[in-house]
Design brief:
Number of helices: 9
Order of helices and strands: HHHHHHHHH
Mean pLDDT: 82
Radius of gyration: 26 Å
Helix content: over 70%
Largest sheet: none
Strand content: under 5%
Distance between the termini: 34 Å
Amino acid sequence: MSYILGLLIAFFSIVFSIFHLHQEASNYFDVIALSMVLGGTIAVTAMTIPARSYPELLRLFWRVFWLGSRDHKVLLDQGFKLVEAVEGRHAVSFNDEKVPSHRQDYFAQLLKEGYDLITLGFSRDLIEQILVERIQKHYQRSSQLAQTLRGLSKYPPAFGLMGTILGLVSLMRSLGESRDPREVGMRMGVALIATFYGILFANLVIGPAGERILKVAMEEKQEGEFALESIILACERTPIFEALEILNSHFEPQDRKSWKTDASPSGEAA
């Protein structure tokens, strides 16, 4: 949600500046400039990002726009419940397969994979080997998409400049037809709108989105490492209270779960 909040702040700042200059908002809208910047950027995106990566990119955007950072207490609770479930204290539930992929919880998916490997009888070392590889591959895919998106931020200003050049060409051709200074000024303003769109789109949308997705990739890697710790503890049948204290060590004191107040030996709230 912080990303959307930032976009809203920037939007209202721009609107305030326009009206403070005693300009009409319609002066800053041009279909040709918008089509040049958006169309060109989408074309480069199609060239540089494979179609098979679109679901993963959509999932990352979903988390950037709507989910934000995960609640550490929720992560700890889910990891601890997995340990309890393997001990047979209660059933464990994971993401619904009917939920669209871009809304799936990576952490819960990883816990489910680990739980399935445990129930299939895989050894502790083999489970760790499999999941470490999956976590690393997931991080590589997400970080590569983030880097690609960050690289795309250099293209909107270029397409904006192309739109400006088209506008200037049209302006120069019109000089022979009309020498009205007001009309020349209006045409010049329209030509510069394309550059404005390109700079705005690159520095307010694509660039920050790439930075946020890179941060999400790092957060999910850390979540994966914590999920792996929970799975290994469950695989080793670690005693409940020992497992809880080991999992607590991953978080700040205010996010930790206390066995005295939050959990009982049966795995239920005290």
